[in-house]
Model the fold of this input.
Amino acid sequence: MRIRSFVRFAILLGVMQAAWGCAALGVKPWQREVLARPEMALNAEPIDAAIDDHIYFSKEAASGGRSFGGGGCGCN
Amino acid sequence: MALLLLVGTSPPAIATSADDLLDLAAFRGQVVYLDFWASWCAPCRESFPWMNHLQGELGPKGLVVIAINVDRERADAEQFLREHVAQFRIIYDPDGQLPEKFGVRGMPTSFLIDRNGHVHSRHEGFLVRDRDALTQQIRALVLAH
Done:
């Protein structure tokens, strides 16, 4: 009996976590100061990044989309 | 009981409210250009000389430029201000209460508030090519009466 109630509690806990586990994720636009640091770039080597971009552009006929900043901010 | 203790010992969550930081009612009768900026925001660097110019030209005609800094570290903001001198009001909001209240979706974001205190328009980002259109919009609102 005790085991069953424990299992029930564990399932309930799991469901609760799944329900709001992702609710508090995300960084607000005004909290991006750490993300904007150069060392936070996906690729901090400009030449390497340029070569990657060239390959990407050749394959996809599109470029960009590397940045974290949105809404006109050129952060990273 | 544990919860009560927790509530009792934790510092007040919000020391100053968004209204304490910025009281727009005090600027009723003036056009307010409200700009959200941060030291790490690259376009903000470009907007500062332009906002200085704006304040210089339209300030005597009833425009108030208010720049709200959202840096968590005050020293970062002060370093930025040493490099980019601001001739307008600066409000420090390290907890991000004002951007939360205004629903800022990107940095920088600016709001143009008319003489009655209503938000006339909002502008996200700062591109040099948008500057002249923005200046004209602000000038028109300030000179309209």
Observations:
- The longest helix of chain B spans residues 42-58.
- Chain B has a mean pLDDT of 87.
- Chain B touches chain A at residues 36, 38-43, 70-73, 76, 96, 99-100, 104-109, 124-127 (CB under 8 Å).
- Strands of chain B lie at 31-37, 63-69, 89-92, 109-113, 119-124.
